[in-house]
Design brief:
- The protein has strands at residues 3-7, 10-12, 18-25, 34-39, 46-51, 58-60, 68-73, 78-83, 92-98, 108-112.
- It is mainly beta and 114 residues long.
- Strands 2-10-9-4-5-6 form a six-stranded mixed β-sheet, with no helix packed on it. Strands 1-3-8-7 form a four-stranded antiparallel β-sheet, with no helix packed on it.
- 32% of the residues are buried.
Length: 114
């Protein structure tokens, strides 16, 4: 069955960095575009970043462009989100998803605070 397991979240001070990982299984990872989403308390889930199946193209939400980088390793069935210059408004639970699939992992929480 399809599984998406996010990891790498935690508590970080403003201006700090984190690298999130999402290990995928149960489908042919290398043929699917992948996305990172986030959901802050009391808010709707929003798209953060997307990467094509080959990793050749990416898109970002305006709020994270220039600070976050999405990448993937198809040999490891893993998609990453490098988050730099973190702000308190980046606090949320972060989820990965495969394009066209209605599966979600449990997410990994990120808290940006002093």
């Amino acid at each position: 069955q399809v599984q998406l397991v996010e990891s790498g979240g935690g508590l970080v001070q403003p201006g700090g960095s984190l690298r999130l990982s999402c290990l995928a299984s149960g489908f042919t990872f290398s043929t699917y575009g992948m996305r990172w989403y986030r959901q802050a308390p009391g808010k709707e889930r929003e798209l953060v970043a997307q990467i094509t199946s080959s990793g050749g193209a990416t898109i970002y939400a305006a709020s994270v462009k220039g600070r976050f980088t999405i990448s993937r390793d198809n040999d490891k069935n893993t998609v990453y989100l490098q988050m730099n210059t973190l702000k308190p408004e980046d606090t949320a639970v972060y989820y990965c998803a495969a394009l066209g699939m209605a599966y979600w992992g449990k997410g990994t929480p990120v808290t940006v605070s002093t």
